[in-house]
Design brief:
Length: 451
């Protein structure tokens, strides 16, 4: 089932008036009904017996009864139903991709932001110290190239960070078995090689994550203690959590890269609808980041700016192809539809709570500094800094790239337009930053990447 009904097609706001005018123009008795016989429209006059099917991908969704003129209406309805089905499929695919992105982003969001291995090791020892008594501790990670255990963190003993040890003795046994051990009388254990005289009791546990061991943690006590199985169980559990966090430090970067890749892929998917603006997104992103760096935005602001720039035109998914791809001048009604794309963008991105902070950049990149922009007529500092930056970057790229109805402006002419509109269309501070930035380097960088 294609889940498209003829009644839904007829109710589509842009299409419904067209059908009404066409029915009036044909001036012939017509009957339109659903596939199940439900009456949708009937004009005055005797009902004709000739039936013209309305189909989508070979499936009957309705019928038009009338003379030979009715076949035109049936064909138009079939064509528009195909478009509606394509739009629905594209919308579903877009939402599905967003769900995938959301899943990736939520997974990454649960990982502590600061996940440097030394900090994780320090946190582990702090947690252990609250429940287990020990004098000194050593955290070692395996060097995958040499197989040696490298001291990551050492507290209260003679080891130094960076020192490399063979996995021997008790550490070697734990490394080989993957199981923690308790040695309450270290002096009598022959495996405790090169034993410091200050060590009387110890526990050793692997840093174990999933199916791999990445290191060892050893806790020692200068006075003899009786560590219990419960202590070891807690110790190994906390050590495993630390190992997972350490591996997640690398995984987080991979997930983040995957998230950005999916965002870029989604933006490129939307761009494919308009071949004349191909790679516009990448260039606007490069220009925006060049401006952001010149304006000394923080790393967090730059990240927000990058995502907003990449997704600034995502709302064009809601604009009909016959308007978006029109090669002649738009009518007032058509331009009103184009002006809706920032709002459509807001609606799409609002489905992802983790991207809520980029909505202002997406929704307001067509606002003007003087308040005469759209969709909300914001002005000056009411417009988010990311939107003000994207407005300049977007306009510069629009001016300097070829369109089907005109050639791109020479750089000097585009520069003059930016200067002329500073303080009205654009934030003058950002225009000033434009000429102080490496936007032109970004231009050549972006185009070199596309070559």
């Amino acid at each position: 089932m294609n889940s498209i009904t003829l009644g839904k097609v007829l109710k589509r706001r842009p299409f419904s008036p067209l059908v009404t005018r066409l029915v009036t123009t044909l001036a012939t008795p017509l009957v339109i009904e659903e596939a199940d016989g439900t009456l949708l429209l009937a004009t005055e006059g005797e009902r004709a017996v000739t039936c013209y099917p309305v189909t989508v991908q070979g499936e009957l969704i309705g019928r038009v009864y009338g003379d030979e003129k009715a076949s035109l209406l049936a064909s138009l309805l079939s064509y528009h139903a195909e478009i509606e089905l394509e739009r629905k499929h594209l919308g579903n695919e877009t939402l599905h991709k967003y769900r995938e992105i959301t899943l990736l982003y939520e997974t990454a969001d649960k990982i502590p932001f600061c996940m440097e291995p030394r900090e994780i090791a320090s946190f582990l020892l702090e947690q252990l110290r609250q429940v287990i008594t020990f004098t000194s501790a050593t955290v070692l990670l395996q060097d995958k190239e040499t197989g040696l255990l490298e001291v990551l963190l050492a507290e209260g003993n003679e080891y130094r960070p960076g020192a490399r040890l063979e996995p021997e003795g008790i550490m070697g046994a734990v490394w080989a078995s993957g199981k923690g051990e308790i040695v309450n009388d270290a002096a009598t254990d022959p495996r405790f090689v090169n034993r410091p005289t200050t060590v009387s009791s110890l526990m050793c546990a692997p840093l174990h994550s999933k199916e791999s061991r990445i290191g060892i943690v050893m806790l020692t006590s200068a006075t003899q203690r009786v560590y219990l199985a419960e202590d070891l169980k807690l110790f190994t559990t906390l050590a495993s959590q630390a190992a997972v966090q350490m591996e997640n430090a690398a995984l987080y970067l991979q997930l983040k890269a995957a998230f950005y890749t999916m965002v870029y892929t989604l933006a490129e998917t939307i761009e494919k609808r308009d071949p004349y603006t191909g790679n516009h997104t990448k260039r606007v992103m490069e220009y925006s980041l060049a401006l952001g760096r010149t304006l000394n935005l923080s790393d967090e602001q730059l990240q927000r700016l990058e995502l907003a720039a990449v997704l600034h035109d995502i709302g064009k998914i809601g604009v009909r192809d016959d308007i978006l791809l029109k090669q002649s001048k738009l009518t007032e009604d058509e331009f009103q539809q184009i002006m809706r794309h920032p709002v459509f963008g807001e609606e799409i991105i609002s489905r992802i709570p983790q991207l809520s902070d980029i909505i202002p950049g997406v929704k307001h990149h067509h606002e003007r500094f003087d308040g005469r922009g759209y969709p909300d007529g914001l002005s000056g500092a009411q417009i988010d800094i990311t939107a003000r930056i994207i407005a300049v970057a977007d306009s510069f790229d629009a001016m300097t790239t070829d369109r089907p109805y005109r050639k791109g402006f020479p750089f000097e002419e585009a520069f003059e337009e930016l200067r002329k509109n500073a303080g009205t269309q654009f934030d003058p501070e950002i225009v000033e930053a434009f000429f102080a930035s490496d936007v032109m380097d970004a231009y050549f960088t972006a185009n070199a990447r596309l070559a």
